[in-house]
Amino acid sequence: MATLTADTATKISTEGLSEFSDLRDALSHRLNVISAAGLFVDTYYPALSSSRADIASFYMPASAMPDGKSLPVIVYNGNIIPDPTAMQAMFQDQMPESRYEIQDYDCQVLNPHYVAEGTQGSSPASGKNMTILVTVSGHVRFGEPRAATMRGFSENFVLIPNPAAATNTRGKHIKKWLIQSQNFRLVV
C-alpha cells in the first residue's frame, strides 16, 4: 500500500470523506481517484498525438439526458463537437500533428455515489461508483515539431466508470474510466 504523504492527508481531511469508517478506507478512496486521473492523463494525451484512431474509445457511448441534451458533451476551443466519432474524425482529418506536454493535473470527486451498470453494491473505497473531475494544464504544439510554437492549454473532464470494465472477467485491457464531459481551451 502507498504511503500517506502530507499532501494526500490534507486532501483527505478537506474533502469531507466522513462516509468512510476509517482513515485506511479514506486513503484507499483518494488513491483510487488519483490513480484513475493519472492513468487517464497518461493514456489520453499520447493517443491524441500518435493513436488518433483510438480517440473515440475514450468516451462514453452516445446517449441523451432526460432533457434531450446529448452525452458525452465535448467542447473543443469553444466549438461543440457532436459526438466521439466526430472528435476522432477532427483529429484524424483536420488537425495537424500534435505534441502535448502536461504540466499539471488535479482531480476531485464530483459524485461519490454515482452508480454505473455493473457497479451496484461497490463500496465507496473501491473507487468504482463515482464521477471524477480532472483538470489538466500544459502546452501543445500543432504542426512540425521544430516549426510550431508551444501553446498553453487548459482542459476539464468529467470521467465516469466504464460499465464494461466492471464486468470484465476475461483480463482484456478495457478503459476503466470514460469521458462524459470535456472542455478544451487554448490559452492566449
The outline comes out as: globular
Distance between the termini: 42 Å
- Contiguous low-pLDDT stretches (5 residues minimum) are none
Radius of gyration: 18 Å
In total, how many beta strands? 8
Strand order of the largest sheet: 4-3-8-7-6-5
Sheet of most strands: 6 strands, mixed
**Average pLDDT level:** 82
Elements, N to C (H/E): HHEEEEHEEEHE
Question: Structural class, judged by helices and strands?
Answer: alpha+beta
The percent range for helix content is 25-40%
Q: Report strand %.
A: 25-35%
Total DSSP helices: 4
Summarize the model shown.
The chain has 188 residues and is of the alpha+beta class. The chain contains four helices and eight strands; from the N terminus they run H-H-E-E-E-E-H-E-E-E-H-E. The strands form two sheets. It has a six-stranded mixed beta sheet with strand order 4-3-8-7-6-5. Strands 1-2 form a two-stranded antiparallel ribbon.
Description of the molecule:
The protein is of the alpha+beta class and 188 residues long. It contains four helices and eight strands. The strands form two sheets. The protein has a six-stranded mixed beta sheet with strand order 4-3-8-7-6-5. Strands 1-2 form a two-stranded antiparallel ribbon. A hairpin with a 5-residue loop joins strand 1 and strand 2. Helix 1 packs across helix 2 (23-50). The N and C termini lie far apart (42 Å). The model has no long low-confidence stretch (mean pLDDT 82).
